[in-house]
Write a structure and sequence with these properties.
Distance between the termini of chain B: 52 Å
Shape of chain A: elongated
Distance between the termini of chain A: 127 Å
Number of helices of chain B: 3
Helix content of chain A: over 70%
Largest sheet of chain A: 3 strands, mixed
Order of helices and strands of chain B: HHH
Number of domains of chain A: 3
Strand order of the largest sheet of chain A: 1-2-3
CATH architecture of chain B: Orthogonal Bundle
Shape of chain B: elongated
Number of domains of chain B: 1
Radius of gyration of chain A: 38 Å
Oligomer: heterodimer
Radius of gyration of chain B: 17 Å
Number of strands of chain B: 0
Strand content of chain A: under 5%
């Protein structure tokens, strides 16, 4: 690997949004009062747009270089220098992170602009944008971090901002709880990430190559090929731990439960964090660490199956949801599952490609949903919508395009990216037909639930109440403009990653310097065309069913509800009882543990304390006795002896003067006698 | 003061310590008091790391700083538990409410 080229502008891609966050966070309340919300909006949007310009600049610098030289580094200072651990505070732009920063700043910038319209009536406007900018800075740290440790800083940062933004409307207790849930579930994953990081450093260090700089780690990865821990290959264990981290951030089974709840946040947040950027962190991390993952086929196998399971489970749940944002949330979980299928079959580039196209159309869908919610006065139930295309033509058109994209119809973006994953699942050496088939079923369901949503929201009769209908309106241009731009992306973004038969993926080629393994397969062109046709046919079938059910209404949804005694429907509707199971096992388990410790506290600890107190009281009582009988006894004894003696001696005090005189004279006589007889 | 001088780090440490002490002494909110304690601990950390870098010639100070961070986490857990208990008892986390011992 070539030495990266030194630059000093990359830091500003991170620092500008951070600066925006600091200005709005520390002075926002005053700025909003004196200069108005417009100023806040400019302070928030400008840094992200400038960062986007810098990202584009970095991209073109990279493009002008030979492929193996495409590394720009901005080294600020040595961060940690301790024993064999040396970590630089350094940001790296390579082909992979260049894609990510374009997505984060580009789509993030559009969402910032959109949010100035969406959040306009909110009192805490400045607080919202401070968080949003801080999030952008953290996400950029995550993707630009040159070392695993700096990546982790961003990783935690996005988690924190996600928590703050989910609970943004914290006056409603449910929102605050959703924020807590996201934070705590993510913490479980972060724990895995940290362990994986420690393990890799530890094993590399044992070979004399201890480092947390990702390029260095990748370079020395082969040296730990044979290292073992507890009888397992270190790489397998470490990548499993890292993958646990990825399941947390990227909402995979078993840690996906927080993402649907995260919809409690404002809709731009759902679009930016819980669809386009933060949830892709896990995918990005696995792609970044691809050298290690490729060394652990067992982990890859597990990842593929977790991906499939998540894609299917989330898609089935999405079939039954009625909340416009919940459908999109589960669809996000499902699409992230596809990305992990891509990773699991060795197609890291395909996964990152799907990540990028998904960012476009999912952000567009969420913002479209936000536009609808905005128009419907914060009504999110699709059963109370319908016929909205009459009032909201731009929202409808962009939403429609994005639905086509996510459902996987050519030539929209989602088709190419999803098809590449399916293709690799079918043909690559890590893939297999079962994964492919299940993923295909999931694609059919995706088409169904997305068109169901489209029909329920935009077609048919309007089911809103009279008052809401009167106020229906298209959103202001500040909101529709980002929608249009994102929709354009949803149409054309796929063209940079064409399948092999249509000229091959430029995107995978671009990522080649970072992602060496890209699951190349040499199957026939006929097969490739055939598989494409199959996936389009399956998607069309899904659309057809949705059309019959929700547009033509010639097929009642009840047919499916009552299928097999209604068991599947109940399973899907209750989200496979994941929440209930977690509630029973982990929440109640924790509470049980808490009660146990509470009882421990009440009986054992308090028992000890009370025991000590009782003992002290006993000692005090004994002491009291001692005091009463021994000390007092002594004192009283002395006085008694004196009394007794006094009683004896009082006989001498007769009061008889003569007696006294006798005494005096006898004493005198004795004294004189003694004096004369012995001393003279 | 340049970033390569011990005194600049010690100044930062002193400022942090003063801020922490000020917080602990003036705040009546128990959580703020805890935050002040954290500041004081971190001022000690800054000194540890600075001395380790400039004077001692070994890494012991940095390791100590990590220990302090870990202890601070434990301290925060215990501290927050106490705050919770105080809240349960007095329905406020004003530290001056918990002065019933002297009565």
């Amino acid at each position: 690997m070539e030495n990266p080229i030194q630059t000093d502008f990359i830091r500003w891609i991170v620092f500008l949004p951070l600066l925006g966050a600091m200005v709005n966070g520390l002075l926002g309340a005053k700025i909003q009062k004196s200069l108005g919300k417009g100023a806040i909006g400019v302070i928030a949007c400008a840094p992200v747009i400038v960062a986007f310009a810098l990202a584009v600049y970095a991209f073109f610098i990279l493009k002008g270089l030979a492929p193996e030289q495409r590394f720009l580094i901005d080294n600020l200072y040595r961060w940690i220098d301790l024993g064999s651990l040396r970590v630089d505070m350094a940001f790296l732009v390579d082909p992979l992170s260049s894609v990510m920063i374009l997505v984060v700043t580009g789509i993030g910038g559009l969402i910032h602009i959109y949010a100035t319209g969406y959040m306009h009536d909110d009192k805490a406007f400045w607080r919202f944008f401070a968080y949003l900018n801080l999030f952008t800075a953290a996400m950029l740290t995550l993707v630009l971090g040159d070392s695993l440790l700096l990546l982790f800083v961003g990783w935690e940062g996005v988690g924190l901002c996600s928590y703050a933004l989910i609970g943004f409307w914290y006056h409603d207790h449910a929102n605050a709880r959703a924020g807590n849930k996201a934070f705590i579930v993510n913490r479980v994953g972060d724990f895995g990430f940290v362990l994986g990081m420690f393990l890799l450093f530890w094993s590399l260090d044992a070979q004399g190559h201890g480092s947390l700089t990702i390029r260095e780690m990748a370079k020395w990865a082969p040296s730990i090929k044979d290292s073992l821990i507890w009888g397992w290959p270190v790489v397998t264990v470490a990548t499993l731990f890292l993958f646990v981290g990825a399941t947390g951030k990227s909402a995979q089974i078993p840690l996906f439960v927080w993402l649907p709840d995260a919809m409690a946040g404002p809709t731009p947040v759902s679009a930016l964090i819980h669809a386009a950027t933060m949830v892709t962190a896990g995918v990005y991390m696995t792609a970044r660490m691809n050298v290690f993952f490729s060394m652990a086929p067992a982990t890859l196998h597990l990842i593929a199956w977790i991906g499939v399971a998540t894609a299917i489970v989330a898609a089935t749940i999405a079939l039954t949801q009625n909340d416009i944002k919940k459908v999109l949330a589960y669809s996000t979980v499902s699409q992230l599952g596809y990305m992990f299928i891509g990773v699991g079959v060795g197609g890291y580039a395909a996964a990152v490609f799907h990540l990028m196209t998904h960012a476009f159309f999912k952000a567009c869908l969420f913002l479209g949903a936000g536009s609808v919610i905005h128009a419907m006065h914060h009504e999110q139930d699709m059963r109370k919508m319908g016929g909205l295309k009459k009032w909201m033509p731009i929202t409808f058109a962009t939403f429609f395009i994005s639905v086509l994209a996510i459902a996987g119809f050519p030539p929209f973006a989602g088709f190419f990216s999803k098809d590449e994953i399916l293709w690799l699942a079918f043909t690559s050496e890590h893939g297999n037909k079962a994964v492919w088939f299940l993923a295909l079923c999931g694609a059919g369901m995706t088409a169904f639930y997305m068109f169901r949503q489209l029909f329920m929201t935009f077609y048919g009769e309007c089911r809103a109440d009279h008052h809401t209908q009167e106020h229906l309106h298209e959103s202001p241009p500040v909101m529709t403009m980002p929608l249009v731009l994102l929709a354009i992306g949803a149409v054309f973004a796929g063209l940079i990653g064409l399948p092999g038969v249509l000229g091959g993926s430029q995107f995978a080629h671009w990522l080649e310097p970072v992602i060496h393994a890209h699951g190349e397969s040499h199957a026939s062109h006929a097969l490739e065309w055939g598989l494409m046709a199959v996936s389009v046919a399956v998607a069309s079938f899904g659309v057809f069913i949705a059309f019959l059910m929700y547009r033509r209404q010639s097929l009642s949804p009840d047919t499916f509800v009552n299928l097999a005694g209604g068991l599947p429907y109940r399973l899907f509707d209750r989200k496979w009882y994941f929440v209930e199971i977690y509630q029973a096992v982990f929440v109640n388990g924790t509470l049980l543990l808490a009660r146990f410790w509470s009882a421990f506290d009440a009986y054992i600890v308090d028992g000890i304390v009370n025991g000590v107190a009782t003992l002290t009281r006993f000692v005090a009582w004994f002491n009291g006795l001692f005091d009463t009988y021994i000390i007092d006894g002594l004192v009283n004894g002395l006085s008694n002896v004196t009394y007794w003696l006094g009683n004896r001696f009082r006989r001498l005090q007769t009061g008889n003067i003569n007696g006294y005189l006798y005494g005096i004279i006898i004493a005198m006589a004795v004294a004189v006698f003694v004096k004369v007889r012995y001393w003279s | 003061m340049s970033p390569n001088e011990l005194s600049s780090y010690l100044t930062i440490g002193a400022i942090l310590f003063a801020l922490g002490l000020f917080t602990v002494l003036t705040r009546r909110n128990a959580i703020s008091v805890l935050m002040g304690v954290e500041l004081i601990l971190n001022s000690a950390n800054v000194n540890y790391v600075a001395f380790s870098h400039f004077s001692s010639g070994n890494s012991a100070g940095q390791i100590y700083a990590i220990f302090v961070i870990m202890l601070a986490a434990a301290e925060a857990a215990v501290g927050l538990a106490i705050v919770l208990a105080i809240f349960k008892l007095f329905h406020t986390i004003d530290v001056e409410a918990a002065e019933t011992m002297r009565d």
